[in-house]
């Protein structure tokens, strides 16, 4: 006994470490396994007009198919551009005055293209919303009068569904965005503005609340130091409200992502929402499996976007006590 | 006291508007303070000590009367009347160095070069023995250290008057004693005028040239002023046996616990007990 006590064995630590590992990795795995089991059990009992509801295995197969289709489309596109370059080179050799024509490949966008489009749209819409919401929130939060003036409007527009905005946005964009050589497609603007209009509110509200609730002690310090209004905002108000601003940004981003899928579906704008709708209309026996892949991917991307914001918050904020939830 | 006083708290009265009508917090507080004098304000909780300090700081405007510093009326807060706040009020997103720097940049913009400012900030942090923690953030240092930095931030603005609102109230007795010694040292070196609010009778006697004792509110005013005529530098251990020191203590205690004995019901006593118990415990 004495010997054992004198030479401390690493065993308890290892056991403790393994215990933590089991909790951190094992429990989520158990959760996933139970979900997969229930899913496949339920799926085998649901018969739809498009055949049996896909279980985990079917969905896994479809994700493989979607990837294969993507690779195939890329190869076709590469081949197309190769042929075009070759043709142009030949024509140029025959006639040095010939101006080569470059045409874009017009294949159907694949699942992965749609993911890219959706991500780009949501990020632009969200960035635009942030650029408006944070300064506006600061201004509103600094003045009780402005807060009183803006608050009813914010409360009115905050709960509006994207589906209600979408027709208005579409018509306004069509009316105002008239150009022969569009830099970006109209459908992109429709989705982006809808995302912006729906996701702007949590950031405005949280920024304003954060700014309005800057500790009176900090304000007093600022007054004793006679900080100018701009220095006061940038050195005291803004850092002090960073945690609240990020709470708003995270809410905004998750709303933006949800809104985007709905907007793409309804307006047939390119993106994951359109992919889901197209598959639904397509009505093949694979469709349900492919939609289920999209559902899982949408969820995963939403989760990653939120984690990204959290990491950004940790990098930017002085308040390191933010918990990872 | 000189014929042309440095700082005058001139018949200051203060009333606040409350839903139940106007509340008269201070009534005709009149006090003249000489340059370099160390004055403590002592009194029970809620007697308006902080209000007096905030009026001198310019954070509050008096309802009647006013404050005159070097012949000029105080109308707004400013770095020449630096405040050391009770809860230190350091910005948690700035390091120790940056917290001090914010004030220094504000006061010495155009007067000191970058390098001179850095030396000055480091000098002030060294004065409160915090030069080792310049790059630490407030949540990485102890309460006593934070209060030291708060003092350094105030001193670095080269204030004519240093206003301290219970600066050591939230600290343990040992840390408090250390900081009191540091403060005496700094005051001996720089000779700033200091107004300090305290609940601690020993602290008041040890540090002050004069102790201003306030009556209980509402309509609080100055009850008595005690001139503490003890030779500096003062040593807390030697003084603890000094009959003069003990008679000063006795006067203050008598004022607080006999003349201005606070009659409270149990409910309000509970709220204030944490604050008052500090002084009675030490006393």
Automatic annotation (TrEMBL), chain A:
Every ABC transmembrane type-1 domain range: 115-309
Name of one Pfam family that matches: BPD_transp_1
Membrane-related topology note: Multi-pass membrane protein
Residue intervals passing through the bilayer: 21-42, 126-150, 162-179, 191-215, 236-267, 287-305
Keywords annotated in UniProt: Cell membrane, Membrane, Transmembrane, Transmembrane helix, Transport
InterPro entries from the UniProt entry: MetI-like, MetI-like_sf
Domain of life: Bacteria
A cellular component annotation (GO) from this entry: plasma membrane
Entry's family note: Belongs to the binding-protein-dependent transport system permease family.
Name of the molecule in the record: Nitrate transporter
Organism of origin: Parahalioglobus pacificus
Lineage, uppermost ranks: Bacteria, Pseudomonadati, Pseudomonadota, Gammaproteobacteria, Cellvibrionales
Automatic annotation (TrEMBL), chain B:
Pfam families membership: ABC_tran
Biased composition (Low complexity): 274-283
One GO molecular-function entry: ATP binding
Membrane topology: Peripheral membrane protein
CC per GO annotation: plasma membrane
Subcellular localization: Cell membrane
Ranges of residues in domain ABC transporter: 7-241
Location, primary (coarse class): membrane
The keyword Methyltransferase appears for this protein: no
CDD domains in the record: ABC_NrtD_SsuB_transporters
Gene3D superfamilies recorded: P-loop containing nucleotide triphosphate hydrolases
Swiss-Prot/TrEMBL keywords: ATP-binding, Cell membrane, Membrane, Nucleotide-binding, Transport
Region Disordered: start-end pairs: 264-283
Similarity comment: Belongs to the ABC transporter superfamily.
NCBIfam families xrefs: ntrCD
Name of the protein described by the UniProt record: Nitrate ABC transporter ATP-binding protein
Organism, as annotated: Parahalioglobus pacificus
